[in-house]
Structures are given as structure tokens and as C-alpha cells.
Design brief:
Layout lengths: L2 E8 L4 E2 L4 E8 L2 E9 L11 E2 L6 E8 H7 L12 E8 L5 E9 L2 E4 L4
Parallel strand pairs: 1-8
Antiparallel strand pairs: 1-2, 1-5, 3-4, 3-6, 6-7, 8-9
Length: about 120
């Protein structure tokens, strides 16, 4: 069976992004259905896969990383309106037996991701 995992790296401070809330949604016909909410651990990872087992089905998904809250908790001055509030990554899972890893490298003003495995 396949699984979906994630990892957050704070590129501003050069450390794992700990205690970041991450939400997973399934995207169908333009509508979002929330599947799970997780929080990253001290290593910037989740304690369990974000998606696995019978819940892991092919389709379109969306991860939402609440990064402004994280940086505010790190005492970073983001101004009245943060440039990046939530980072949204929409992607497809096409292989039921594959391991999809979606890392997020983030700072208050930029982010990058890729498909790992």
C-alpha cells in the first residue's frame, strides 16, 4: 500500500520546522474534503504518514502548511499582513503502491517543494 509523508525545513533559521500545523484535503470536482490535520514534530516530520492504508487512493490532494503561525511563534516580525500565511501545495497521487514524500522548504518570503519518495 502507498503512503504520503511530509517534512518541513525552516530555511530562514536552518532548522527543522517543528510544531507546524498541516492539513490534508482531497480535491474532487473543485470541492475540498478535509482528511486529516497533523502537526510536525521536533524533526519537522509527522509522527505517522499523512495518508496510508485504505485511505490512500489515487486522486488530487492539497496540503496546507500554516507557516505564518510558525514564524510568529519564532518571534519573526512578519508585519501586519504576512507575505506567506498558509502555503498550499496541490498535487496528484497516481500510483496506489507508491511512497509520495512532499517536503517543504520555507522562509517567510519563499518556499520550494518537490516529489521525494
Amino acid at each position: 500500500m502507498g503512503k504520503l509523508t511530509t517534512h518541513v525545513l525552516d530555511t530562514m533559521h536552518g532548522v527543522p520546522g517543528a510544531n507546524i500545523q498541516v492539513e490534508l484535503f482531497r480535491v474532487e470536482d473543485g470541492s475540498l474534503t478535509k482528511i486529516k490535520t497533523v502537526t510536525t514534530n521536533f524533526d519537522g516530520r509527522t509522527d505517522e504518514p499523512v495518508l496510508e492504508g485504505d485511505e490512500f487512493v489515487t486522486g488530487k490532494y492539497q496540503l496546507v502548511f500554516h507557516v505564518a503561525d510558525y514564524y510568529k511563534n519564532q518571534d519573526v516580525d512578519l508585519g501586519e499582513i504576512p507575505f506567506l500565511d498558509d502555503v498550499v501545495i496541490r498535487f496528484g497521487l497516481g500510483e496506489t503502491g507508491a511512497h509520495y514524500h512532499v517536503p517543504l522548504l520555507v522562509s517567510p518570503y519563499s518556499f520550494s517543494t518537490y516529489r521525494g519518495g
